[in-house]
């Protein structure tokens, strides 16, 4: 386990999966990140797939490859490149296990950097192969709601920035696992940008929103002075999720660069909707900041 901290915050990151497991407010002694066996994860990294692939598989050059839900990164041990005390850099390169799922040479580098207002995540994907590669990348942080035990889940709200947006979401079907059905529908949000949280809204599972001009998303409540804000400039989609049917006291706010499959459609990887493609030697960086109060 790696620890980074400053005067305001302390973060714990597991090298196994490069997963942020705790993010403490030091002055008030509470954790922003979910920790409970009801959902035994915290902030998984999603690579090179997001969600479930149809038949848990995909095709590449006509050959079928298995792909676990959200990819394979959660089961990989990352190398510690550097820990300066308030900044941690972890990396993963392809290996015998990853190549069974994903026949590409790559390097994934993740930087966690604390500042006096929160934490920044920076993901860098590098194609070190001699052929093009295609991938999705996402971050899956689960936040305790209520924050610091103040209020209840239903007392909280999500606000997208800037206000007045006309946002859309992908219709989800269960088979019994949640997949997209290929339809895009209007997001049910007041003034286009405001959602009052309740557990019933997650009965169908995840809510994936197309980032049509979203610059940030704010989780807040009148019951607390604390809030959580995510910047989203580098991510085309954002997903909201909590464990359905459980009245779970957490909410995942997930920046996505990629999408789950459409039900019934096993895809050719190089044609996969919303994926990023890199030519040999190319790199792509995705960054977002969590600002905390």
Automatic annotation (TrEMBL):
SUPFAM superfamilies, per database record: Galactose mutarotase-like
GO molecular function ontology, one term from the record: carbohydrate binding
InterPro entries: Aldose_1/G6P_1-epimerase (IPR008183), Gal_mutarotase_sf_dom (IPR011013), GH-type_carb-bd (IPR014718), LacX (IPR037481)
GO term, biological process aspect, one: carbohydrate metabolic process
Regions annotated as coiled coil: none
Name recorded for this polypeptide: Aldose 1-epimerase family protein
Provenance organism: Limosilactobacillus mucosae (Lactobacillus mucosae)
Phylogenetic classification of the source organism: Bacteria, Bacillati, Bacillota, Bacilli, Lactobacillales
């Amino acid at each position: 386990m790696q620890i980074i901290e400053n005067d305001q915050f302390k973060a714990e990151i597991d090298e196994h999966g490069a997963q942020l497991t705790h993010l403490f407010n030091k002055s008030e002694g509470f954790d922003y990140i979910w920790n409970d066996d009801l959902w035994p994860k915290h902030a998984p990294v999603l690579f090179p797939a997001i969600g479930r692939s149809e038949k848990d598989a995909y095709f590449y050059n006509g050959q079928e490859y298995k792909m676990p839900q959200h990819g394979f990164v959660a089961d990989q041990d990352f190398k510690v490149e550097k820990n300066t005390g308030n900044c941690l850099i972890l990396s993963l390169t392809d290996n015998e296990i990853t190549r069974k799922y994903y026949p590409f040479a790559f390097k994934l580098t993740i930087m966690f950097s604390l500042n006096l207002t929160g934490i920044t995540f920076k993901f860098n994907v590098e194609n070190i192969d001699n052929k093009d590669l295609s991938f999705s990348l996402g971050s899956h942080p689960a936040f305790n709601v209520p924050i610091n035990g103040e209020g209840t889940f239903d007392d909280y709200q999500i606000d997208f920035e800037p206000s007045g947006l006309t946002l859309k979401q992908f219709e989800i079907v269960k088979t019994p696992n949640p997949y997209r059905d290929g339809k895009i529908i209007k997001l049910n949000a007041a003034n286009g940008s405001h959602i009052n949280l309740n557990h019933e809204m997650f009965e169908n599972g995840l809510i994936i929103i197309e980032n049509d001009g979203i610059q940030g998303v704010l989780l807040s409540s009148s019951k607390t002075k604390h809030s959580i804000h995510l910047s989203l400039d580098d991510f085309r989609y954002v997903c909201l999720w909590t464990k359905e049917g459980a009245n779970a006291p957490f909410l995942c706010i997930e920046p996505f660069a990629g999408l789950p499959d459409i039900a019934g459609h096993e895809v050719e990887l190089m044609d996969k909707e919303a994926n990023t493609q890199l030519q040999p030697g190319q790199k792509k960086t995705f960054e977002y900041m969590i600002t905390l109060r």
